[in-house]
Amino acid sequence: MLNGRMSLTKDELERYSRQLVVPEIGEAGQERLRAGKVLVIGAGGLGSPVALYLAAIGVGRIGIADSDLVELSNLQRQVLHSTRDIGKAKCASAKEKLAALNPHVQVDIHQTRVEAGNTVALISPYDFVIDATDNFAAKFLINDGCVAAGKPFCHAGVIRMGGQIMTVLPGRSACYRCVFGGPPSPEDVPSPAVLGIFGIVPGVIGTLEAMEAAKYLLGAGQLLTDTLLTYDGLKSEFRRVPVRRNAKCPMCRETC
């Protein structure tokens, strides 16, 4: 034990050997990852690569929140799940895969939908939150709950051949409402089932979300704060769009 922390075991030293030699990580960084707690809201296209990579790099506690069951139409993008999981709760399927990947990781499952009455309680035990949802109502609930609780989080969205991502540090950077205002009317926004989504796109964006969570836990690098990073898969092109806090944002205005 070093400075009150458990040193890495022999198995962990071998498991993480390729990243332990990275200057920004080392054993101290690996111990920070092991002490980290990340909540992934949504175990679908975005949540799958997020959860898999966070487990693989050794984040010590990962929460998975999702109320859905695995369906056949999920499988072209939701790589946490397989054909034999059809009909199974996504939370249960996710826990099974993550435990098999890395038994050192604690996986908490929350088989529930994000709602106004449960968001703050859901996010409170965690250090960082991942928005891996696919609807505007959930995204605004996550934003509002995280801003109210002072919890950093990473937003992402994907559709067709592209996506976007940004990280929010409440009280310090623009939040989702600062940039997008309020939820659009449901009739104005076709569902992903109508618009479509290419299965690889959430893999690209979800992996970037995992990187944001890892950088936050490590205290390394530059987070995507006050920046909306957009991705065009057909052009293999990323574009950084500067954003800023909105003095009229109902969530942020008191601290602007």
Helix content: 25-40%
And the CATH topology? Rossmann fold
What's the tally of helices?
Answer: 10
Q: What top-tier CATH class fits best?
A: Alpha Beta
Query: How many domains, as an integer?
Result: 1
> How far apart, in Å, are the first and last alpha carbons?
43 Å
Describe the oligomeric state of these chains in a short phrase: single chain
Strand order of the largest sheet: 3-2-1-4-5-6-7-8
Q: What is the CATH architecture term? A: 3-Layer(aba) Sandwich
- How many strands, what sense, and barrel or not for the largest sheet? 8 strands, mixed
Mean pLDDT: 93
In short:
With 256 residues, the protein is α/β, with parallel strands linked by helices. The protein is built from 10 helices and 8 strands.
Structural account:
The mean pLDDT is 93. Helices cover 35% and strands 18% of the residues. It is globular. An eight-stranded mixed β-sheet has the order 3-2-1-4-5-6-7-8, sandwiched between helices. By secondary structure, the protein is an alpha/beta fold. It is built from ten helices and eight strands. Helix 5 links the parallel strand 2 and strand 3. Helix 4 packs parallel to helix 5. The N and C termini lie far apart (43 Å).
Task: Name its key features.
Rossmann fold, 256 residues, alpha/beta, single chain, 10 helices, globular, eight-stranded mixed beta sheet
Secondary-structure blueprint:
Blueprint: H1 10-15, H2 17-20, H3 26-35, E1 37-41, H4 47-57, E2 61-65, H5 90-101, E3 106-110, H6 119-123, E4 128-131, H7 136-149, E5 153-159, E6 162-168, H8 176-180, H9 192-195, H10 201-218, E7 227-232, E8 237-242
Parallel strand pairs: 1-2, 1-4, 2-3, 4-5
Antiparallel strand pairs: 5-6, 6-7, 7-8
Helix pairs in contact: 4-5, 4-10
